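Memo to structure team: turn this sequence into structure tokens by end of day. - J.P.
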Amino acid sequence: MYIRVKSSKLSPRKSVQIVKSVRTGKRVSQVILQHVGIAHDEKQLSELRELGRKLILEMEEREQPSLPGFSLLENEEAWERPVGDGERVSLRGMKNLEQVTEGPGEVVESLFSSLGFEAIFGVSNRGKGNTEVLKKCLACALANPSSKRGMSRWLEDEGGTDMSLNRIYRMMDALAKKTDRVREIVARETASLFETKASLLLFDVTTLYFESVEADALRVSGYSKDNRIQETQVVLALAVTPEGFPLWYDLFPGNTFEGHTLVPVLRRCMETFSPRQAVVVADRAMFTEENLHEVEKAGCSFVVGAKLRGLSRTMREKILDAGNYSPLPGDSPVFPEGERETCSPSRWYSVPLENGRNLLVTWSEQRARKDASDRERLLARLRKKLQGKKALPGKSLVTNRGTNKYLSLENSNGQDRYILDEEKILRDSRWDGLHGVITNLPVESAAEAQEILAHYGSLWRIEESFRVNKHDLSIRPVYHWVPRRIEAHITLTYLAFALLRHLQHRVAVRQNAVMSARAIRTALLDVQSTLMKDEETGKLYRFPKAMSESARKIYRSLGLVRGLGNTEILSVRKYRNRKGIRSAGTDGDGTAGEGTGRN
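Reply from structure team:
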């Protein structure tokens, strides 16, 4: 194994990798074992080289452990020893001290290293200290996402780790300065998994609210997707792959228009991710001429939701003419904004637009039924307000964009009244089942139409990604108010999201199992040990709990073997600051019956 530095004539950045020469017959080729990081200057290059040498020593140590006292790695005194068969303890003198959750920390330790996240803070003494705090916070983010104060409490009470709130805050202040490096490392790891594929860049935005009404340059009131109209917020823009892996993110003030977020993220994403082919997929909120022009200028194709009713009158008449549509063979899944069920279009219609663009419109019977049902629900609400009357006085009507579009205003005896407009209801019903996208891809056949619809259908994945960040990783509400801490909070959650996606991928590929974020959390929280103290001798013992099948799959997917033998803890301090467990390939069952399996 050795360190390789790769550079490009088009970029000053240098990529540091750990590679290994492999002979196949007479041919010798190099296999990348791990991406260490990307250096922007000579100082970073020197740090990454040093980190790479340390990682090589760790890899060699795992493949062939050194004799005691001869390891080239840091030779720390063991913090535990296996309990021998002949040892006896008095049950009467045993006291149960605590139950420690070890699973999240052990898994994060393994993933953190394999994804090259050590490069975030580097290998200086201060950098190593921040790295250890970051690992603990990521373990807590997967196991028990909460405020930073809550993280500190959980790590001490449940995780068996000493972690003060001030240490977490100091790490966050350092992390805020590494935001770009974090995004580049995450993008690189995503690219390494899907480098042979044409790239789909799924883009969307959401809002994150604060438990506060005080505003500043970043925290501003605006349109809230969480319906938190009183609290301040920020706008989070996210780009992911169709598999849900993160590509890039950016943060904007809370009153930023959604359409103004696409271009900045696309530029950074293209610079860092550098896909050979790129198709940008976004919902209709991104449908602005400026955005489409910038996407084309960047050399990308696009599939963007179309606002059909906002098109010209001539175009609307063509869309509503059923004779223009052709049958669409097979099922082409489309997930319109906010919908979870699959709508399978049965008819399609394509119209050439200016600048080489095309409008693709589809009709789906399932979507038509849903549109009709949604309209009937709104009309039922209006009819209930009318209570048999023909009109409603203006003051009795609460403004509602959903129901007001079916009303007309009339003036009777000097008073404004609203009446139900049957003509508006009829016109609205003509759009039932229709959905459109604008694209610069060719749409000359049903097969090409189906491919474009499949691209747009992938948007469900970014909606799912937002749901994971909001509900499973608790990215909001945000409890910070200092800008650097807000940035660090988002970056920390983004790292946890990347770790989660890579873990799900490894479980799926290596164990042929699909595990949700909740299932992973449940499995890891159950990986525990009981600490008991012998009051007569003062010795402290650790009794690992048997692992569930789900936990075994997670550990096998990472090549980890967790010792289930009882041990005596020799150093409480070192136990509370312990590292991960030894990697032992991916063929075992994730557990070892005897010994500790630890470094």
